[in-house]
Amino acid sequence: MSLREAGQTNQDEGTQPISPLNAALFNKTSSLEYQETTPAIPFEFIQNRQDSTESELSTTYSQSQSEAYQKLMCRAPIASLDCMEEFSGTTAQLDFGRSTSLGSNPAIPVRNNATTTPGLRYKNLGKSGLRVSNVGLGTWPIFSPGVSEDQAEAILRLAVDSGINLFDLSEAHSGTRAEIELGKIIQKAGWKRTSYIITTKIYWSTKSEERGLSRKHIIESVQASLQRLQLSYIDIVLVHKADSMCPMEEIVRAMNYVISQGWSMYWGTARWSPVEIMEAYTNCRQFNCVTPIVEQAEYHMFCREKAELYLPEMYNKIGVGFMAWGPLSMCLGDTQNGERLWLPKGSFKTKSQSYSWTEDEVNKEERLEETRRMYDKARDISNLAEKLGCNAMQLSIAWSLKHEPVQCLLLGATSAEQLHQSLQALQLLPRLSTGVMLEIERILDNKPVRPPPISTLALR
């Protein structure tokens, strides 16, 4: 008997038409196996499809239930929007289905005509509610003597159009000119104050006339920066290097006063040791002051220990985020073959001269050997970058952003073209697979390892 005949028979008897399939499902004497494998089909669904057979009806109902379930799951809360952005339309031009293996597959060319910046993300800085772009603009090379005002304005406009919302100022590198010029450009462009984030530093140096991080120096420095920037407040004030001659209580109380006056929203540190950051946090908790939210430190392929071992611990314990700089602080070195390779400036730190000429000779040989090893690593990294279809600088930027502790990476540029090329490195992130990262680790061979704990009993 077909479904139509069964329904007609039930209607003639004055009862509600029921399908034999549903009758078997709701019958207490039906087999358990049949109930578990075949779902109950509502009467309304059967009445609208009376021309279908039992198998077609069951298949159609299963498909409709599956579609309804998928729609319901799409309305569920998303745990991480950053993960979903990897599959958004901005990255549709990249080939995600193709794994990049060394030397086998041809490299995907990096786009040069991007109107938006694929790979740009916005993250919370530290455990605060302030969301910053994962790439920030360091202004120390932009306002250097060799860059004109028109070039600096073009760089800033390109950064804003690309989605960058953080601008970092450093009095130690560019002096007070950076704050003055940036303030003029902001006023000329008419950008909304809520659309960008300004970070400036209170720099302490033994060569400066205004020495120390006293309450007087901190308050006067913040007020002077506000006047030069022509702004009512600064988003983040960073204390550049700690002052061992000033009590930590005075520093944290002064920063808390700056925030309570509305001159700054947050404060952080730059080039502080983990011990100094923990001491500042402890004093903030003791005296009920605002705690720092970020530490700005150097991080690249040849400087990894602090960023990978200690700053993630600071984030998990006290909520201090990590703002990195360094991938572009490179210099070019000439080899014997006439090639030019990129090398970090901080890789060859001169060791202190001793009073013994024999020790100086040994240190000289060690530095030469270290230079040779560094050149070999740089050459291998450059060759790997060629296989990936980019240059070594772009690979260095993508490698830094690949590490989870980096919440914001500062990039500098002396021209709009250089900034555009640096931003193209964001497209490399999906192609830095596990195999590529392992190959980079093999080349560098400098993964930091935490030293074993020292027992106090063994020292006695």
UniProtKB/TrEMBL annotation:
It comes from the Eukaryota. One of its GO terms (molecular function) is oxidoreductase activity. GO terms for biological process: regulation of potassium ion transmembrane transport. Keywords: Cytoplasm, Ion transport, NADP, Oxidoreductase, Potassium, Potassium transport, Transport. Residues 135-443 form the NADP-dependent oxidoreductase domain. It is found in: Cytoplasm. One of its GO terms (cellular component) is voltage-gated potassium channel complex. Belongs to the shaker potassium channel beta subunit family. This is NADP-dependent oxidoreductase domain-containing protein. It comes from Aedes aegypti.
